Amino acid sequence: MDLPEDLQQLVLKLTREMDTLGLEPFETSSQVQLETSGPGPGAIEKPADLAPWIEHTMLKQQATRQDIVKLCNEAKQFGFHGVCVNPCFVREARQELTGTNYSVISVIGFPLGATLTSVKVEETKQVIKLGADEVDMVIAIGPLKDKDYKKVYQDIRSVVIAASTVPVKVILETALLEYEEKIAACLLAKRAGAAFVKTSTGFVYNGGAKKEDVSLMRAVVGNRIGVKAAGGIRDFNTACEMLKAGANRLGCSLSVQIVSSRGD
Predict the structure, then answer these.
(1) I need a labelling partner for 53 at 20 to 30 A (CA). Which of 34, 89, 101, 241 fits?
(2) Taking 90 as the threshold, does the pLDDT of residue 264 lie above it?
(3) pLDDT tens track for 9-29
(4) Which residue blocks in 47-87 are alpha helix, DSSP H?
(5) Catalytic site positions
């Protein structure tokens, strides 16, 4: 992908810094060739067509087992990609979706990203053991802002190694990052072997997905890894904007409302 000159220069500068630090680029089996624009032209004609790109999400602290059962039943009813749940409910989600093609996604170091790498690694191993098909980890935001790229890289790389063939998505929390920090986060995630970069946890006020961030993330990571837009996607038009901007996956808690709408 051809980058604008200013972005190209910034990517080159950051890449050289990371090379100097000896941060080795890795490719993993979960990094696959993906279309930059999400679904092809005309693929999304009505709200229900969005379902395969949606991770039906329930990450509220007050969620109960009954909420998770309902979430899984809705995933099966509407044909979502899968469900995204907190670690304590991975077992229940796996039980509800056993025998189906729907994925169980869980979150690591959520929502702050400030836990020790060793804790993120152990959490990753445990949720996979319980049945998670994908994991979404929160990046170490403080060290990223400190430009401690080696620490951020090692944090992501350790989780990717622990996950083995299970895809890892790296949540950037874009609302808390400056322009150059977003670029650095994308480069570090890709270099460490992540399968996706993701916009947000949804836990930062007014900090959901923005199409400008999705476009930037797609431009930086290219076609080899995915981009997940999450946070604040509440209607059909916004969901379509995210896909057109370059997202390959959408994280939504109002999924049923979105796919059941009239699309206007």
Answers:
(1) 89
(2) no
(3) 999 999 999 999 999 999 887
(4) 65-78
(5) 136, 198, 228
